[in-house]
Design brief:
Length: about 425
């Protein structure tokens, strides 16, 4: 018990770093707005189209740039000033939110507008996310990078909890457009924090070519089977679990016969579960010395709960089930991201995060598109059940195929302890 309490306390110790705490504060405000927009966007798509394929296609466009640009964005973030890169990406996302708000406010919004804006926002986020994850490490230092990543993920989950609920209230009381206006204004907070903080970045030489840098990163991955395992585990959660949540608007209207407030409630339960997981479950798992077994168990847990709730017609059961399933999602994502940051050489951190984004969230477009088509044929409930069972089968296959994965105990390499 003392070890668990100590791990819990250590989770928040990076906040003593003034730069890190200021940046995470700005991130929280910005991500709250982004979560509101994501919920409002899915509601607008569903109201215009009433098509699960359209929902899946929109989610695909949100994340497809991660697959196409993620690895390159990581190399850019290793060579360029990450602070300036993040400011540029945040200002671009703010401009897109304002355009979205104007189109919705004037009633001119069409499905193709949403597709275009989703793809452009995906490009901005593809550039932002590898730089952002590595920037957290720049602020915290390698000694506290895993704790800082947990806190960064916690901030994301808080936004996923409160953002959809706020979006549901705003849409119910004021209509859809204000959710986009609020998101546009929220970017000012994170831009302000980026201008305030000071970081220590180990940069690749400017003359290093992108292709050479990518080749070095992939060669490093090729020599490290456990890194390949971490990347595969990371890919499964966005491909199956997050893509399945993209069908919630269809579940709400067609099976629960409810409106935007219920959509916000269920989406908030997903964020609340992930926040609870970051706050309570992840610190407890730090005592587990075999991450291969931990990640496999987490995958089985998530998949099983999606199977349990898939055919329910009760809102309360969806809220509880989504909460419990998502409580373990941060275990997979933060454990894999944290270990990759520790195992990667200092001047390859953002490149590794770019490849991680490409092979994890970059695969989500295909998961979203596939589940949208499956739902169109067999229904949203059956599609979610199928994705839950697939997570269990994939995790079992990894234990069987990846040699000694269940025995792996990571050790910090010598280059990871240098500043």
């Amino acid at each position: 018990m003392k070890e668990i309490i100590h791990s819990f306390a250590q989770t928040f110790s990076p906040l003593r770093n003034r730069n890190l705490s200021a940046y995470l504060g700005g991130q929280l405000i910005s991500l709250l707005g982004s979560a509101m927009q994501a919920t409002a966007q899915s509601w607008v798509v569903w109201q215009i189209s009433h098509s699960t394929r359209a929902l899946g296609f929109t989610l695909m466009l949100d994340y497809l740039p991660m697959l196409l640009l993620g690895a390159f964005a990581g190399t850019w973030a290793d060579r360029l000033d990450r602070r300036k890169l993040l400011i540029a990406s945040q200002l671009s996302a703010m401009l897109l939110a304002v355009v979205f708000a104007l189109l919705v406010q004037t009633g001119l919004i069409q499905l193709w507008h949403i597709y275009l804006l989703a793809a452009l926002l995906g490009c901005a986020m593809a550039i932002d996310m590898p730089a952002q994850t590595a920037f957290v490490g720049d602020l915290s230092g390698i000694e506290q990078v895993r704790g800082a990543i947990v806190l960064n993920n916690m901030v994301r989950q808080v936004s996923r909890t409160a953002g959809p609920a706020l979006a549901g209230v705003v849409i119910g009381l004021l209509d859809v457009a204000p959710a986009f206006w609020i998101n546009g204004a929220s970017f000012l907070a994170v831009v302000g924090s980026l201008l305030y903080v000071r970081s220590q970045q180990v940069r690749k030489p400017q003359e290093t070519r992108t292709k050479t840098q990518l080749k070095e990163a992939f060669q490093f991955i090729g020599k490290e089977p456990r890194i390949r395992d971490l990347l595969l585990f990371s890919a499964c959660v966005p491909f199956f679990a997050i893509s399945a949540i993209g069908l919630i608007p269809a579940i709400v209207t067609d099976y629960l016969h409810a409106g935007p407030e219920t959509l916000g409630l269920i989406m908030s339960s997903a964020g609340a579960g992930a926040f609870f997981g970051s706050l309570v479950v992840v610190p407890m798992t730090h005592q587990i010395r075999h991450p291969g077994l931990l990640l496999t168990a987490a995958m089985v847990w998530i998949g099983a709960w999606f199977m349990v709730i898939a055919y329910s017609g009760q809102t309360w059961f969806w809220v509880i089930g989504i909460f419990i399933a998502n409580a373990v999602v941060p275990v997979v994502l933060t454990t894999s991201a944290g270990l990759l940051q520790v195992l990667a050489p200092p001047d390859m951190k953002a490149s590794m995060m770019g490849i991680w984004m490409m092979l994890s969230f970059g695969m989500q477009p295909f998961g979203a598109l596939l589940i949208g088509f499956i739902a169109q044929v067999v229904g949203a409930q059956t599609a979610i059940f199928f994705y839950g069972s697939a997570m269990i089968l994939v995790s079992a296959a990894m234990l069987l195929v990846s040699r000694d994965l269940h025995l792996w105990q990571p050790e910090m390499p010598s280059y990871s302890i240098r500043r």
